[in-house]
Amino acid sequence: RYEGEDRISALPDDLLVRILSLVPIKDAVPTMILSKRWRSIWTMVPALEYLEKPPCIWRFIDGYLQPHKADVLEILAVRIRGHCPVDADVGKWIVTAVDRRVRELGFMLSWSAEPTRLPTCLYTCNTIVSMGLSHRILVDVPSPACFL
């Protein structure tokens, strides 16, 4: 039986967030069960990359993108391959990312679902510095649009 002090939980939030940003988000999220103090630490990680193919990735993204609360979302990168249900709402994910002042946005949707139309708020987002889109994405730029 270990009776020692929990030193890692005593670290400042900024350092814990930095540590969690070094691991894949699918591994960072489960740290919320470690203690009350850890419940929301993962929500401050500034980069969300969903590049693997876990079952039901769209539910994972829906469940964990909404409570995310970093001041600036540095990266949102999503790769979905194979079968995807019709209820995967990529537009909602992008709107959420724009609301969180996303800087780098990447979507690779090589799935069996219909192509995704990008929400209009993306075309006037002034925080994006890098964007990569591929496969089943419809780019229909409205007027006016502003990419700086």
UniProtKB/TrEMBL annotation:
Organism classification: Eukaryota, Viridiplantae, Streptophyta, Embryophyta, Tracheophyta
Alphabetized InterPro entries for the sequence: F-box-like_dom_sf, F-box_AtFBL13-like, F-box_dom
Question: Residue ranges of the F-box domain?
Answer: 5-41
User: By what name is this protein known?
Assistant: F-box domain-containing protein
Q: Name one Pfam family in it.
A: F-box
Q: Where is the signal peptide?
A: none
